[in-house]
Amino acid sequence: MRPPRPGPRSTLFSAAVVAVTAGALLIAPYPAGADPRPTVREGSPLPKGASDAPASAARRALTAPETDLADDAGRAVRGYPREQVLAPDPVNPADKSIKLGLTPYHAIAPKLNALQGLGDRVSVEIAGRSAGGHRLYLVTVTAPETARQARAQARMRERIENVPRLAAKDRTLKRTYKTPVFFNNNIHGNEWEGTDAALRLVERLATAKDTRTKDLLAHSRLYFNITANPDGRIAGTRTNASGFDMNRDFVTASQPEVRAMRRIQIGKQPAVMLDLHGYVNGTLIEPTTPPHGENYEYDLFLKNSYANALRMEAAVNGLGYTHDKDGVDPAQIPFRDSEEGWDDWPPVFTPQYAAFHGTVAAHTVEIPLQVNNAAYESLPVAELRRRSAINVDVAGAAMEATLGFVRAKRSSLLADQIEVFRRGAAGAAQVPVSEETVPGVPGIGPEDVYTAEFPRAYVVPAGRTQRSATAAARLVDHLIANDVRVTRATAGFRLGGRAYAKGSYVVDMRQAKRGMANALLADGRDISDKVSVMYDISGWSLGRLWGATVVAARSGRVSALPVRPVRSAAPVGRVAPRGTLRLRLDSPQEIAALNSLLRDGVRVRQAADGSALVPASARRKAAALARSHDVVFASTRASGGTVLRPVRVAAAVSAGELFALREMGFDVVPVSTAVLNAGFDWSRADVLFVSSGLSYDGLNASARTALTGFLAGHGLVGGGAAGAALSNATGLLKATAVEGNGDANGVVRMVNAGGPVTGGAPDHAFVYAPVWFTGLGPDVTVEQSYGTGDLLVSGHWRPTDDGSGGPTAAAGQASVVRGPHAVLFGTEPLFRAHPKGEFPQVGRALLTVS
Fold it and tell me: Shortest CA distance to 355 belongs to which of 515, 136, 503, 466?
């Protein structure tokens, strides 16, 4: 994570930063793990090692099922302990943990077997598997429970969420409910030590005889995700085997590890959670700087998170490590010690996501001493192990302090969790933070006040087009997976002055997790004027970016609507009974279905509008794809068109883009400047896609000759400045790429020209370091342009210091351009595999130029 910027909230913190230089030999010159701000594009180039994602990792990530943990699945509930003997993993001497004196992944299963044998407090369950195929271990530590007692706990947990008004008055619940606490470790694979601290703490709790531990376990369940990223732990990479930073994936949940964490947070409903990271010196402990997430109950969150942060700070500083002796600086709390730069605005981070599921104290904890990246390679082993040992101590101190906080504040934590759900169910107003509403937290000012205006309901209308129907179904299933309650109309109805057809979906915003619903469905807001810099993305909207229509109803009697609850979206896939079939190619599922047909040798043609014409002889294959991909094959009388063939893509792209390409069913081989310089066999590719990691100037003479020879008979799809630079260098398309503010990102309004690339595309797009194109040659067609007027719907996009690069400069400019052999994107249609409604633009571009 990136270090916060010091600000006027604390001059003491600024002085501490200045003092760091004296201990340079002991302290990393940059707090790595606090990743530096990206200057151009997301994730460029592809990470190495485990992150050099094979196609199998993408397939596994897309298909890995969620594991139903025992008290989440609605089946027979077992008591505790839930012991099992874990089969060992093969010993891997290349595991990067070993050099640090930490626990390698292959040693975790034997360790957990031993811990289960220490008594009756420790249970181990498999929460899922990683993209690389490794087991994810969920350890529960609690006092023993019979099956009957476990069922009672499950009923109380459900009562807290489903009927919070009554739960608040339930004396038995207040007396006997076990407060859930969640420790998430090692989500960044090369930030190792949380795992070892967790194992050490579990061992202590398994056998401790003192009264405080017995009392804690009698009134709490402690959940430990031992390593959230075993792929990265083994390989020493921040990312998993698919190349994903999973602490950016919670809105999308593209990765199986994130879906497992989502399942834990929904099913276990923790009141308190810690997410253990590294490395920031001194130890950084959230809560954060503004802007604060507007969709959760921030007054309750800040009250508890700040109180626990103080406890963790005291415990960490109380270890006795010092700057002069150990290279360890005092702990810092961004809310208190920094002005801006480390916000909790987007719900893509684990602690911020947890807040939507009732967690009222959630923290990223950044342990102090760098042992990854350059330090891992350059420092002596003895120094690395010294640092790792200190980091384990610091992580353990934060965990122990949190347990003390839970034990001391159990009743109020439970009451506040119930209040979160009560406000949602009742449609109650949020409480703006102030020194009056959150007593005991100093320095609260107007810059900390962020609240949402919740509509009465959201409606996802029954799809009038194939694209909107497919997108609506995908969106509804995603809402349900995030524990948002959705209903479907059994008859037509009116709400908020509009009429809707039977089959439309309704999200009543008087529900416990209204904050989760609003975070996913609302447009968001433009916060460019609120702070000068943001930590990560600032805008997202599943309706705008996934291609579904979402309508906010501000008023109306939702309780009177003819609706019934649904557990999944109604399938929309179908095949016309006769004649030639037409596949729109407006959704990623449709692109994937097309690629499946092409791989099977079906003779498919592309119509002038970009859609695919499928012969009637392939109806049986189409029927299977309609079921598996939930897409529509309509009838058509169209004829002619260009014959399509399977497209093999050579791709110099980010991990998210690679994953999205494979999600659409493309055969992709990653390339880079180094790969091309080593001699790449271009017969393996039909088209080149470049957005990062490939520089024409960096190619040797042989690689340049081979590349230009390939492009003479094949096409290029380019993303951002890197793609445009390669296009210019090879003379494929005459266009000047103008780079906007590199910090800018968000949801923007677009105007589509309706060509073969953007036909049927959403009228909104996602940008990240936006680019636009000027000086277009005579054979260049504008496929899409930035909107005019108020361009930015949600996000953070300011002009640069010299006044250039802002949204005003981009308004009306070309964002996607096409020539005979190239297509260039100034937007981010595949960003982190998230904006599903934009994927088909890239799919169509690849088909068009190949």
Answer: 515
> For residue 609, how many other CB atoms are within 10 A of its CB?
15
Q: Distances from the Cα of 110 to the Cαs of 88, 117, 264, 579, in angstroms?
A: 6, 11, 23, 61
Radius of gyration, alpha carbons of the chain = 27
Q: Is 145 a catalytic residue?
A: no
How far apart are the C-alpha atoms of 602 and 583, rounded to whole Å?
13
- 782: closest CA among 807, 760, 761, 813? 813
Would you give the end-to-end CA distance of the chain in angstroms?
39
- Nearest Cα residue to 829 out of 672, 676, 657: 657
Half-sphere exposure of 497 (CA within 13 A, CB side): 4
CA-CA distance, 650 to 667, in Å (whole number)?
9
Tell me, what amino acid is at 172? T
- Pairing mode, strands 745-752 and 715-719: unpaired
59 contacts: CB under 8 Å, gap ≥ 6: 662
Integer Cα distance of 161 and 163 in angstroms: 6
DSSP category for residue 3:
P
The whole-number average pLDDT for the span 755-764 is 92
Cα distances from 271 to residues 132, 296, 323, 403, 642, in angstroms, run 31, 14, 34, 12, 58
Three-state SS for 506? strand
Alpha-carbon distances, residue 416 vs 44, 216, 612, 813 (angstroms): 42, 19, 54, 49
Residue 760 burial class via C-beta count within 10 angstroms: exposed 0-12, middle 13-18, buried 19 and up = buried
pLDDT-derived band of residue 535, with 50, 70 and 90 as boundaries? very high
Strands 179-185 and 122-129: unpaired
Mean local confidence (pLDDT), 520-546: 95
Answer for the pair 280, 333: CB distance below 8 angstroms, yes or no.
Answer: no
Per-residue pLDDT, averaged over 150-170, amounts to: 97
Under the phi-then-psi rule, with left for phi > 0, alpha for psi from -120 to 50, and beta for the rest, what region is 734?
beta
How far is it, in rounded angstroms, from Cα 56 to Cα 342? 35
The catalytic residue among 191, 366, 657, 828 is 366
Please report, for residues 400, 458, 710, 753, the alpha-carbon distance to residue 395 in angstroms, rounded to integers and kept in the order given. Answer: 9, 42, 53, 54
Say if residue 510's pLDDT is above 60.
yes
| Nearest residue to 772 (alpha-carbon basis) of 743, 802, 808, 730 | 808
CB 604 within 8 A of CB 614: yes
Residue 67: pLDDT band (50, 70, 90) is: confident
Per-residue model confidence as pLDDT tens digits over 375-410: 999 999 999 999 999 999 999 999 999 999 999 999
How is residue 501 written in tokens? 């057809």
Contacts of 409 (CB under 8 A, 6+ apart): 304, 307
Q: List the one residue out of 804, 821, 820, 757 whose CA is nearest residue 784.
A: 757
The string of DSSP letters for 324-358 reads HHHS-PPPB-HHHHEEESSEE-STTSHHHHHHTTT
CA torsion through residues 92, 97, 101, 103, sign: negative
Q: In whole angstroms, give the CA distance from residue 317 to residue 310.
A: 11
DSSP 248: G
Picking from 596, 817, 594, 823, the residue whose alpha carbon sits closest to that of residue 688 is: 823
DSSP code at position 210:
S
Provide the token pair at 625: 């794809």
Contact 616, 9 (CB under 8 A): no
- Rounded distance, CA 427 to CA 449, Å? 19
Nearest to 328 by CA among 383, 376, 379, 394: 394
Give the HSE-up count for residue 437: Cα atoms under 13 Å, Cβ half-sphere. 16
User: How long is the chain?
Assistant: 850
Kindly report whether the global pTM for this prediction surpasses the value 0.70. Answer: yes
Over 70: is that where the pLDDT of 217 sits?
yes
> For the chain, how many helices (H) and strands (E)?
27, 36
- Work out the number of other CB atoms within 10 angstroms of the CB of residue 211: 8
**Region label for 83, one of left (φ > 0), alpha (ψ between -120 and 50) or beta (otherwise):** beta
